[in-house]
Amino acid sequence: MIDWITVKGQQIEKASKVISVKRDPLFDQHRLGATPLIPAVGMMEICAEYYRLKFGPKERYCFRKLSILNPLKLFHEQSREIFVATKPDSDSKTLELTFNSYFQTKLGETKLVRHGEMQVNDEPGDFNSLLKYSDLIHEKHTLVSWRQFNANSKWQFNNTINFGPLFVDEYGILNNTIAYNQNSLIYTHNLPKEQLENRDYRLAKLLLNPCLMDTLFQAAAIHALSQWDRIHLPMYAEEIGVLRVPRQIEILRIIAYSNGYQDETGDYDIIVIDADGEICYYAKNVMVRRINL
């Protein structure tokens, strides 16, 4: 996904990309209302590629202290140049990265905007302790289909998050299920065929399969919506691990556990598990915040 790099001495100083809805379906198919909204997983994929450029390809990745500071929207679907840079205090194994762009004000001034920041390495933390959340499937939940959940009139908003078929296809709309109660949510998700068949998505070259990884944030936001009747967007995650990246059609189960809700912000631990009960992705202390529409 990176278009070019800037080298100073023998070190990569920054990596840049022009984000365009015309050539990048990941960004075209994730919208707030009608406006493309760059998802957190889009930032993470680009930062993982930056890490790969410096250290080579890895089987696993870990993101810590992920902060979404200023969500990046492509107003009028105009392309936007972004760049990833390393903070000076990054050590040899962990990169402290910032995700940035320049914004032209109405007065003609150019301002630097920091959209996000995170730490990236290839050493996931303790994730086995999260397997206990698999037992949540035995609790009593309200079970609905994806279509039924989204058709619920009390959860209809003009500027909700709209997903294209890379995130959930027609088969998923009909067959994915959402089971929720006060404390948890279990989202059964069929990997969309579009992720394999869309030539512009280039799944084989992606490090994270970001459209699938986005189900981590979807699960937290869906649970928050079911409990507090408002749209929530991710703002922070203490740790997110990538253990196995699904690249074929399979059924996955996303389990989100609520650690609490305060000041219009929900706190979640989340796992994505396969049919064998193995964790593909995990997240600790994902914070989703209510947005005013």
Q: In percent terms, what proportion of residues is strand?
A: 35-45%
Structural class: alpha+beta
* CATH class (first level) name of the largest domain: Alpha Beta
Total of domains: 2
| Distance from first to last alpha carbon | 31 Å
Oligomer: single chain
Order of helices and strands: EEHEEHEEEEEHEHEEHHHEEEE
Low-confidence stretches: none
Largest sheet: 13 strands, antiparallel
Q: Would you identify the CATH architecture of the largest domain? A: Roll
Count of DSSP E strands? 16
Mean pLDDT: 94
How is this structure best described in words?
By secondary structure, this protein is of the alpha+beta class. The chain folds into 2 domains: about 5-120, Hotdog Thioesterase (Thiol Ester Dehydrase, Chain A, Roll), CATH 3.10.129; about 130-290, Thiol Ester Dehydrase, Chain A (Roll). It is about 20% helix and about 40% strand. It has 7 helices and 16 strands. It has helices at about 25-30, 40-55, 145-150, 170-175, 195, 210-215, 215-230; strands spanning about 5-10, 10-20, 30, 35, 60-70, 80-85, 95-105, 110-120, 140-145, 160-165, 175-180, 185-190, 230-240, 250-260, 265-275, 280-290. A 13-stranded antiparallel sheet has the order 1-2-6-7-8-5-13-16-15-14-12-11-9. Strand 14 and strand 15 (about 265-275) form a beta hairpin. The two termini are about 30 Å apart. The mean pLDDT is about 95.
Task: Please outline the helices and strands.
Elements: E1 4-8, E2 11-19, H1 25-28, E3 30-32, E4 35-36, H2 40-55, E5 61-68, E6 80-86, E7 95-104, E8 110-121, E9 142-145, H3 146-151, E10 161-163, H4 170-175, E11 177-180, E12 184-190, H5 194-197, H6 210-213, H7 215-228, E13 232-242, E14 251-262, E15 265-273, E16 279-290
